[in-house]
Amino acid sequence: MEPISHFFYSDRLKLQFWDYGQDGKPALVLVHGGLDHARNWDWVARSLREHYHVYALDLRGHGNSAWAPGAMYSVAEHVLDLSALLDIIDEFPIRLVGHSLGGIIVLHYAGIYPDRVSKAVSIEGIGFPPSHRVHGPASNRLRYWLEARRDIEKRKRKPYPSLDAAMARMKEANPHLSDEVARHLTLHGTNWDSEGCLTWKFDNYARAIGPFGHNLADTSEIYGQITSPTLLFWGLESFAPVPENDPRVSAMQHCRLIKVPKAGHWVHHDQLDLFLKETTEFLVGK
Fold it and tell me: Do the domain assignments include residue 92?
């Protein structure tokens, strides 16, 4: 069954969400990662809809949601959009699942509105590791952001002459993907341009990491307010280091970390069966 497309407004932007159905069952919302789109959740949603009414959000500047000229694409702005969608769904406390940037958004919402979240799942989504430049001196962070934004202004979107060419780029980013999954993600993640080439749907400006909003102490304080049980997945073949002693993970009161062998950053693609088993058991458990 194909999900139904709906739109809503947040911060004067027209944003899309997908409804996978199952009226009368508890609501569950899926939030994708950066430079991705909501249809990456299709396999997860088709399984979880056996127990839940599943929704998936296209973040601003991603998928079929509006781009946001002048916005920073900050975590705060994305949390604002998620908040608007959840108020429309209006079923609290709610279950939230996020990947990467989506995981960060989910955990921020759970820390800001702890009474509105019953369970939270984050796949490699806590924030950049402590060694990352976003945690460096403010002057460096601001300079990098300014220069990145100016550089994006000069960039042209890269065209791909065929679906196979775009799929090859998708598989370069995640070598674990099967051809079937890569094709699906590419089909839903691209548009045709006027010259008959494919380009990615996401706004290139979403690439520039904002200079503010990634403070370790601030994030730890927010995550420390989370009262819901929290499940964190990490791929042992990911480019991101396992957060063994990360203060943000330590701040979460009821968090369990699952390290997944033979999985990279996209655990829900690389080890789907394991992810679904652990997530389903976690969501229905006490």
Answer: yes
